[in-house]
Amino acid sequence: MKGLSLLSISRDFVGVHAVAGVSLSVDPGEVLGVIGPNGSGKTTLVNLASGAVAPSAGKVVVDGVDLTGASSTRFASAGVVRSYQGLRLFEGLSVLDNVMVGVQRGVRPSLIGAWTRPPGFRRRERRLRVAAMDWLGELGMTGFAAHPVGALSHGQRRRVELARAFAADPAYLILDEPGAGVDPHQLEGMTGIIRERCGAGVGVLVVEHDHGWVERVCDRVLGVADGVVVAEGSFAVVAAHPALAPHLRATAP
Ligand code: ADP
Ligand code: MG
Questions:
Q1: pLDDT at residue 58, rounded to an integer
Q2: What is the pTM of this model?
Q3: Which of 7, 122, 126, 175 is deepest in the core (most CB within 10 A)?
């Protein structure tokens, strides 16, 4: 019963079948990659898998629980955590606060004195701070913990976003183009920690345009075109599909 599954899922926007009858499942401990041309429905799939948009038809099931139509908050409490193609960080807050706020929206940076809060709250905040610092350390960002996010490079912001996702202790991690706007070296720097978390049982669903990276990191790949899955299997098998091969050649680095 374990797994994050989309079952015959569709999502229409006005006049557009963005996703049309897709089924996929991410198992704990695997990295599933999704590739396809621009506009083929990859981000919509990510939005469906994380509860950010509701399906027009079909179901989303997380570890045996039907979450179709549930809020993204409900998905998050079922362990589904995602990152965004365009980053969503709080520019004015410090790196550390961004990671902590992302994990628990109820824990806000200190606007009123900590003394007004009950002891349980302070204990929890301390634990959260330790976890946030641990993940910033894993991503080589310890020295930036007190810096405002607004002062960071794009690659550093990606790492903050990833630290925030990991600090939330996901069962399933969904990444929409982690390589967007960062150089290949920085994307490579995220590989070890993604594989390590995967080894610890996290299921990862990742959309990425850097196909060399997809080939190295993913256990399994889905190829999508015009809202449908056209190929599934190893990167080599999917990349050879006639609907995808011309696109892959066009975007090869
Ligand atoms: P990809 O991530 O593969 O580039 P998307 O999932 O973003 O593709 O988009 C798939 C299709 O759905 C595109 O034709 C896009 O224009 C359309 N689409 C996506 N989101 C919306 C939206 N909120 N409103 C209208 N059309 C949308
Ligand atoms: Mg997209």
A1: 98
A2: 0.90
A3: 175
